[in-house]
Amino acid sequence: MNKFFATTPIYYVNDVPHIGHTYTTIAADVLTRYHHQKGKEAQLLTGTDEHGAKIAEAAKKHGEKPKEYADKISQEFKKTWDKLNINYVRFIRTTDEDHIKIVQEFLLKMYKNGAVEEKPRLYKGLYCVPHEKFMSKDELVNGLCPDHKTAPIDYAEENYYFRLSDYQQKLEQLISEDKIKVRPLTRKNEVLGKIRQGLEDISISRANLEWGIPLPFDTSHTTYVWIDALINYYTYGSANDLWPADLHLVGKDILWFHSVIWPAMLLSIGEEPPKEVFAHGFFTINGEKMSKTIGNVIKPEELINKYGVDGTRYVLLAAFPFGEDGNFSWELFDRLYNADLANGLGNLVARVARLSEKSGLSINQDMGEHETKDFEEKIESLDFSGALVVANHYLKNIDEKISQEKPWEIKDKDKLQKLLTSYISEIVKTVKLFQPFLPQTAENILSQFSGSIKSAPPLFPRV
Ligand code: ME8
After folding, report:
1. Of all protein residues, whose CA lies closest to atom 4 belonging to ligand 1?
2. Chain CA centroid to CA 65, Å
3. Residue 293: its pLDDT value, please?
4. Residue 123's pLDDT band (boundaries 50, 70, 90)?
5. How far, in Å, from the CA of 394 to the mean position of ligand 1?
6. Distance between CA atoms of residues 87 and 83, nearest Å
7. Which of 38, 182, 214, 348 fits a disulfide with 219 by CB distance 3.0 to 4.6 angstroms?
């Protein structure tokens, strides 16, 4: 089919966006823009996750009603994505009317199909509120959640259960055969290993939490926030003839929800599972987890102020192999920005534009495109940093050619213009590879190199 439907997670509105959220969202946008460039009808869905105990608590701390609080923070996400030139087709909020309706229809179908136990039963266990999930004793370190360093609460409640265990065999088969493509491969193997250890039925409702969507078959319960949240993809996808989704792009922390629980929910109502779930790695800051408690959270604005919008998009994706964790540092990002963008692309464009302007060059033909399987394979397998290496290699070749041919020494105008045109042709073709990563810069360069050429201020001033 000539469509590409990708999603980011919907982010919790208990907090404003940081570079982790930014990473996933930019990656999804780059991929969507790439498919769009290839002539597909590519759509990207993002949004905010607004129900659940964590949000209710955060709102209370700010002395606000959950919805008021969510309205405010959700705007912060939207504004950030707009600033970063994220080309989403819809910014979905789990408090949106159409979503609430679809969640209730979805759950009713699950219930009617017998995928949910008829009556609630007692659940006792440990619940980590910041995680919004149950935890087992052996996941704790000194009685605390190792990620949040907080004690989980004792939880005892009557909950409705989804018969997840019924889907063990089916999920194992779908994932091992890549019908649900879980990537990177190491993650696929991890998920399969965990499935083979056995799946337990899971609680899907809360009896004592008002801030959620009422269960359609028992309105004294609200939907567990994760069940509500996962359905967002289907809310948009099913209404727009886009189901199944081509890709759920997520961080490694939430792979299990997306590759196991969510596909099982879909199977339970007779719908198709997503085609691919890709889990990327995590940023650490000086080797530590990024967290509000440690106080080391990096906000996207800090990067934008230093590197600009396209510079930020670039450094985040170029710095580390996409599936792996990476340690953020300003030194590393500065170096990357200066080497690839200021001294690389930016400098090359400036040099060629200067010489072209001086020689009165005008470009009136279409320069075509690179035929580059290597680049395509890399970007389609979400190896963004690898794809950028390929694109940068083209730039280095042009740089080398210029150093060898020394156009500034050539007096013959025809000969000079011919050479400059050949550089511009290579630059333009290469810029099209960069375009999904650097949409605004690419547009500027492409318009600078068509018609009569003029110098322009540096694209990427050194930092
Ligand atoms: O989990 N490095 O929302 P969330 C890289 N609402 N990426 C990071 C990161 C880091 N240090 N920290 C977070 C939720 N992320 C749920 C999702 S979807 C139906 C519901 C990114 O606000 C990464 O993509 O906690 C991770 O999966 C996501 O933020 C979690 O965002």
Report:
1. 11
2. 29
3. 77
4. confident
5. 34
6. 10
7. 214
Euclidean distance between CA atoms 317 and 321, whole angstroms: 8
The model's pLDDT over 87-114, given as tens digits with 9 standing for 90+, comes to 999 999 999 999 999 999 999 999 999 9
Residues within a 6 A CB radius of ligand 1? 9-12, 20-21, 23-24, 49, 229-230, 250-251, 253-254, 282-283, 290
Pocket test for ligand 1, best of 8, 73, 128, 254 (most atoms within 8 A of CB): 254
**How remote is the CA of residue 21 from the centroid of ligand 1, in Å?**
6
The pLDDT tens digits for 243-260 are 999 999 999 999 999 999
105 alpha carbon to ligand 1 midpoint, in Å? Answer: 27
pTM: 0.96
Q: What per-residue confidence (pLDDT) applies to 1?
A: 65
pLDDT in tens, 71-80: 999 999 999 9
Q: How far apart are CA 426 and CA 445, in angstroms?
A: 12
CATH H superfamily, domain 3-120+160-280: HUPs (3.40.50.620)
Q: pLDDT by residue (tens digit) across 389-413? A: 999 999 999 999 999 999 999 999 9
| Average pLDDT for 276-290 | 94
Question: Measuring from atom 14 of ligand 1, which residue has the nearest CA?
Answer: 11
Confirm or reject CATH 3.90.180.10 for domain 299-452, answering yes or no. no
* d(C-alpha 345, C-alpha 446), whole Å: 13
Ligand 1 centroid to 11 CA: how many Å? 6
Question: Ligand 1 centre and the CA of 20: distance in Å?
Answer: 7
Q: Place 138 in a pLDDT band, splitting at 50, 70 and 90.
A: confident
> Distance (Å, rounded) from C-alpha 118 to C-alpha 213?
19
Burial of 23 (0-12, 13-18, 19+ CB in 10 A): buried
Ligand 1 center to residue 18 CA distance, Å? 10
Q: Look at ligand 1, atom 26, and give the residue with the nearest C-alpha.
A: 251
CA distance 134 to 11: 19
